[in-house]
């Protein structure tokens, strides 16, 4: 055996050490399939993309299926060169989207369904995967029939499962209020669609406020959202300014889960009830006149120029 190793230094233990490409493609394939499964069982993340970025539902389902197909091909080593290039392009897109979500201060990238991951962390993961894909190269472009069959079967099984899950937990809009959408146990809020309609959250605000008369500026915010925290002092200043000038009333409404930094009661603060699970992109400003929504915007227009 020593003589064999000495005369064939590159052949010692030939079946024990995986290639660099194998060490890269297998975990990346598993990551893609796991991500697709998590998104398929978390339809509210898809609805967020649909509402926030005008991505049609069929495109989201198609993207999940493509993610599974690429993951299965990487996992089994089918079509080596093609899958490597496809994976590089995919994670480049992922990195760009994570960077965008991080810059706007989003709480989660939305890549892993119910599991909330800070976009900065997913951006780092995407960069690491891209680096690994650039380092790991297939030893051959030869296609292996067995690997191809396994990839196709894996895609058929996992892709079919994800499609079935997407149908079973599809968003239900059978709510007492058509402006609120029940999705897999959560209530999706799309304030942009409320313009010209009665404000649908009045009955869920605690303590209750008389929003049916007069003009109001309502801010929906999360306690752990950096952009929300930056906006709160400006809305407090706007409330004081408007109180002196008889301008619109200002109300800051915290979305569960609640933080511990807010002293209650406070005339300018309230909370959405925690008897429901709410899903909304925040912070978002909603203006009301006599109980009807006149505008809803993520750009927070009331403080863009009024408060420095």
From TrEMBL:
Keyword Membrane tagged: yes
One GO BP annotation of this record: methylamine metabolic process
Residue intervals of the Methylamine utilisation protein MauE domain: 21-133
Keywords assigned by UniProt, alphabetized: Membrane, Transmembrane, Transmembrane helix
Localization, UniProt: Membrane
Entry's Gene Ontology cellular component terms: membrane
A Pfam family matched in the record: MauE
InterPro entries in the record: Methylamine_util_MauE
Listed transmembrane segments: 20-38, 58-79, 91-115, 121-138, 150-170
Membrane-topology descriptor: Multi-pass membrane protein
Protein name: Methylamine utilisation protein MauE domain-containing protein
The species this protein was found in: Posidoniimonas corsicana
């Amino acid at each position: 055996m020593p003589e064999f190793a000495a005369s064939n230094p590159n052949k010692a233990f030939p079946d024990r050490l995986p290639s660099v490409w194998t060490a890269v493609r297998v975990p990346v394939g598993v990551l893609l399939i796991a991500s697709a499964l998590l998104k398929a069982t978390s339809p509210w993340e898809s609805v967020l993309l649909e509402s926030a970025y005008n991505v049609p539902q069929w495109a989201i389902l198609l993207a999940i299926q493509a993610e599974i197909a690429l993951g299965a091909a990487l996992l089994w080593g089918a079509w080596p060169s093609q899958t490597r290039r496809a994976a590089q392009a995919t994670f480049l897109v992922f990195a760009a989207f994570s960077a965008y979500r991080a810059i706007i201060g989003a709480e989660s990238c939305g890549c892993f369904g119910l599991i909330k991951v800070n976009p900065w962390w997913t951006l780092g993961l995407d960069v690491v995967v891209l680096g690994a894909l650039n380092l790991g190269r297939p030893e051959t472009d030869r296609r292996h029939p067995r690997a191809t069959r396994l990839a196709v079967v894996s895609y058929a099984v996992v892709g079919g499962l994800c499609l079935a899950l997407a149908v079973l937990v599809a968003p239900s809009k059978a709510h007492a209020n058509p402006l609120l959408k029940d999705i897999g146990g959560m209530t999706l809020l799309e304030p942009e669609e409320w313009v010209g309609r009665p404000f649908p959250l009045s009955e869920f605000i605690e303590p209750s406020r008389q929003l049916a008369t007069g003009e109001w500026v309502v801010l929906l915010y999360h306690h752990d959202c950096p952009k929300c925290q930056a906006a709160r002092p400006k809305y407090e200043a706007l409330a004081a300014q408007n109180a002196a000038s008889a301008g619109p009333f200002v109300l800051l409404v915290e979305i569960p889960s609640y933080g511990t930094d807010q002293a209650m009661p406070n005339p300018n603060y309230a909370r959405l009830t925690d008897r429901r699970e709410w899903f909304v992109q925040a912070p978002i400003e909603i203006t009301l006149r006599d109980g009807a929504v006149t505008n809803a915007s993520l750009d927070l227009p009331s403080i863009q120029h009024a408060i420095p």
